[in-house]
Each structure stands twice: as C-alpha cells, then as structure tokens.
Write a structure and sequence with these properties.
By secondary structure, the protein is an alpha+beta fold. The chain folds into two domains: 230 residues, Cytochrome Bc1 Complex, Chain A, domain 1 (2-Layer Sandwich); 214 residues, Cytochrome Bc1 Complex, Chain A, domain 1. It is 38% helix and 18% strand. A hairpin with a 4-residue loop joins strand 6 and strand 7. The chain is globular, with a radius of gyration of 24 Å. It starts with 7 loop residues before the first strand and ends in a 6-residue tail after the last helix.
Length: 523
Amino acid sequence: MRRAAVHSLRTSASRRHPWNRSIHLRNSSDPPVEITTLPNGIRVATESTPGHFSSVGLYVDAGSRYETMATLGVSHFLDRMAFKTTKSRSEEQMAADIDALGGQILCSSARESIMYQSSHFHKGTELAMSLIADTVLNPAFLPEELDAQREAARYELREVCAKPEMILPEILHEVAYDSKGLGNSLLCPEDRIDVISKRMMEKYMNAWYRPERMVIAGAGMQHAQLVEYVDRHFSHLRGASADSADSQKGQASSRQTPQVSPHLLQSSQSTSPSLYKSFTRAASSYLNYPPQDAPASGSTYTGGHRFIQDAATEFNHVYLAFEGVGIHDDDVYAVATMQVLLGGGGSFSAGGPGKGMYSRLYTHILNHFPQIDHCASFHHIYTDSSLFGLFASFIPSSGRQSNTPAHIFPHLVHQLSLLLYSNIPDAELSRAKNQLKSSLMMALESRAVEVEDLGRQVLVHGRKIPVSEMCDKIDAVDNATIRRVAARLFGPRSTAKATVVVMGREDVGDYRGVLRKYGLAEA
C-alpha cells in the first residue's frame, strides 16, 4: 500500500500584488497544485498536467439548496441564461466569440454549486476567462431572451417528467429533505416559470455570487497567467471583509454597538477527505456563512414515503434511501465502497468482467429475477448530508404477484441487511475497492473532469485532496468498517429514518414491517 502523500504549505507574498499563494507539495504521482487567494477572497487554483487542451472554470458556492419559496427556480434559469447578451456583448458577438474558442463552454447548476467552464486550445484561455467573467458580472437578462428560456424550461420539464429515471431522484430528494434546502428541485417548478424575473436573478446573484464563495480553477496554463486574468476581471468585486468594514464604520459613526459580520465567523477549512464528483455526483460546499441579507440554507433530513400512481407505466419503480454522511466525514470512503460493492445496473449492461457483473445487485438480484429491468445502488453526496440507497425498476405484475413492489422491496432490504450481519469475502471487498480506486483515477484522464474536480475540492476543502491520499483511505476500509458504518446509517439501534418512493400501479405496502423483519432501522 502506498504511503499517504506528504503535504507542505508554503506562503509567499508577491512584491507586485498583495495576494497569497500556497503551493501544495505531494507524492510524485500527484500533479502539483498552486492556489492563490486575491485580496477580496476569490481563490485561483491550477494543476500542472500535460495536454493539448486547456480548461478553466468558475465555481460558485450557490445552487438550488440556497433557494427559498420566493426564489425557487432561480438557479435553473441562471443556468439557462448563461452566455447570452451582456452589457458589453450582443448575442451575436457572444456566439461569435464562443465559436472562436474552438472548444466547449457551458454552465451547469447543481444543488450546492453553479459552474461556468470552458475547454479550449491553450491560446483561448484569455478569451474564455473574458466570456465567463462577462456572463457572470455583466448579464443583460433581456426580456426576449428570458421569454425564450421560459419555453425551453417548459420543454425540459416535460422531458424530464416523462422519464422516471430522471424525475424520481428529484422526488426522492424532495421527500427525504421535506422540500427544503437539499429537497429543492434542480428544475424550476412549472408554476414558477413565468414568475422568474430579471430582478429576482440579479438579487440572487448579488446575495450569493460573492468572491469568498468563488473558486476559479484551470489546467493547461501557467498559474501566474491565470491569476493575472482573474485579477483583471474580478478584483473589483467586494468581499465579505470589505462589507464588514463598511458596516462597522457606519455603525461607529452612528454610535451604535458594533456587530460581528457572519462572514468573520467562518469555521476553519476542513481537511477531511472528499470523493470525486465523477462517481459521487457530489456538489460543492457550504464553507462560508450566507450573506446577512440572504436566507439560511440548512437542510434537515426527515425521510418519508411517497407513492406516485401511474397505471400506464411501462415499469414499476421502487427507491429506498437512508441519510449518509457528509463529504467532510471520514466514513464517506466506506459508504462509497459499499455503493461499489452493491453496484448493479441494467439487465443487459454488464458487458463482461470489470464492468460490474460481479457486484452484489447483479449476482443476487438481476441474475435471479428476470422481471427486474434495472437495479442499482446510488450515493448522492453533499456537504452536510448524503443519500445512500438502492432502487429497482421492474415489469408490472399483470397477474403475477412476484412483480409487485411489495415483493421486490424485501430483496432490496435484504441486500442492505447483509452489510450489517455478514462478513464480506476478502476477494469481493478487494475487488470493490480496486474498482473504486480505478474509477477515481480514470475519471481524471478527462481535462474537463480534472478542472471541475480541482475547482470543487478547493471550494469544499480549501485544497486539492491527492488521489494517493484517497486511495490510502479506501485501502483502510475493512469488514469491521463496513459493519460499523452500515450500523450507523441504517442499523436498528440508530435513529435512522428510511425514505421510500414508489411509482407505478401499486404501492409498497407495510415497508416499516419489512425493515423491521430484516433488522434495519424502521423509524
């Protein structure tokens, strides 16, 4: 087993600029990362890896979990309105400049982050940075463009709602978190599409698009070069410290008792390990306290049950989830290993060795129940919580009792109970850990994934967690760890609550009784 990477931090002050630079030295197999913090709090990170393309992205600690009842759907529309007309570029000029990049540029919103990212030839970095800065700092939000995106949002919502595999994870989050915080949908609700306005989007951006909540990451360019570009476009943004100083100055002048800005009460940067978004679908973080004029964004897991009746459905669908650990928790590696161990997929998607055909959901469920079309594990990780569980899609009964949700659900529960009450063969556990480690390393072969991972990790942890360190954490997972973490997540002595979502012709029945029968938490 490789030794954990050794880190050292070196801070130096530039003679020309008052920003802080830190260089992370690590295992020779891990590419070096440089991080610079500008005076207003925005962080710039680069990773040195060879390649024919460059990639750069802006990652904002914002997203649908920060929305309230009055702002639901704003993140979705900010995504759709990106790279349109700005105060300095017409729609035609924006399109022409994007074409001139010769690469790809996109915006994507998630529950805990909004990212603007470009992949392009090396010489295009300056233009890409200009386009990203323009769409974030100078959006015009023209009425005609907004109206066009309303129609596009309606079409997108219809398409997603027509595909259970896409809409059910959204419903699962809604039930698990009581439609608040992480329970907010990634999509703008239909009754909100005509409500979203220019003023609403601008107010949301003013509240959450703060420099201390931003990271700009790049690969394929010199670190000093990217810092210069960021300084040119973003140095005028006011950070939390500037707002706090102005606030305290105003309070002193009016002889009021000074109050501490919540921005000055930030918790220390966590160095707990995280997992790559490529296999966890994790979002960003909630490191910084929200602005004083913005709502809190805490989420409380509640669990629950929902049945969506659909007599015309092609398949019945059953989801079972429990709350997992947040991204800063060391047990996140054990949960990820459990997910890979359970594995699963489509009934015809194994493809051969090395592609999951020996995972437990294939060998124990898909290979024994031909009526099940799809069965897989999932793990949606967030900063302070996660959803871990299983789902199955299967042919409706049509007279066969074995095709009902009440029949399929116990098989899912049984697979979780095995993690609690039986040892995993060493060869099986080793195979799952090797698959997990290889998924980490192979995902980073993509320049776009590499930069996105760098940006998100700096946003979450303030540093880049090297792959060697993550692999050491995965190697440390053993049978005792799996049983302990399983007991923590869904053991009968825990206070865990299940989230059950069923879509189809029939409901699942007494799911609490099934959980109790197999020795899982039933609350």
